[in-house]
Design brief:
Porin, eight-stranded antiparallel beta barrel, 18% helix, DUF3575 domain-containing protein
Length: 182
């Protein structure tokens, strides 16, 4: 059987385009492994802007951290700051679409270092507001959507138990975040 140049070129182009599409999809995923998000409700209503960074490690695993800082004297929100690193395991998404990596329902394991407002009785019917530091471990659940233009929206709810020995009890972890995958 003799292979002519026309058949060889057609075969080569087909293989090249198929491999090129696969490589392009993988490259697209490799280029977009980072996310920056803002927790909208606490930023607007709680005077506690919270920004998160998330790094995608695999199609269903990511790690990240969020940092929130109070912009008032602690009257609106219950604390001065909260730093929470987290690990997420996603259930959903597929290899066919790069925008579906690290999307869908997720379970989160988190840790947190934070401050909580407390009142101290100083006698004479007066109270002094102070802030106690705490640290703890917790879990959460959520769902993440990623658009075709790599905009990210997520909703999550969870919390954790204080492990620092204070009488703080724990910390909340909840929000509706919007951001961008890049």
């Amino acid at each position: 059987m003799q292979i002519n140049e026309k058949n060889f070129n057609a075969s080569f182009k087909c293989k090249f385009y198929c491999c090129g599409y696969s490589t392009r999809t993988e490259r697209l995923f490799l280029e977009r492994k980072n996310e920056v998000k803002v927790n909208i409700p606490v930023s607007i209503f709680g005077a506690f802007p919270e920004v998160s960074y998330e790094r995608i490690l695999d199609e269903d695993i990511s790690v990240g951290a969020s940092l929130g800082v109070s912009v008032d004297d602690g009257d609106t929100y219950v604390g001065k700051y909260q730093f929470s690193p987290y690990f997420r395991w996603f259930f959903g998404g597929d290899r066919e679409s790069a925008r579906k990596y690290a999307a869908g329902f997720f379970i989160e394991v988190n840790a947190s270092v934070y401050s909580v407002k407390g009142d101290e009785d100083i006698g004479g019917g007066s109270n002094k507001t102070n802030f106690e530091r705490g640290a703890g471990l917790g879990v959460g659940l959520g769902w993440k959507y990623v658009s075709k233009n790599n905009w990210v929206g997520e909703i999550f709810l969870g919390g954790g138990k204080d492990m620092s020995g204070n009488d703080i009890g724990g910390y909340p972890r909840a929000g509706i975040s919007i951001g961008k995958r890049f």
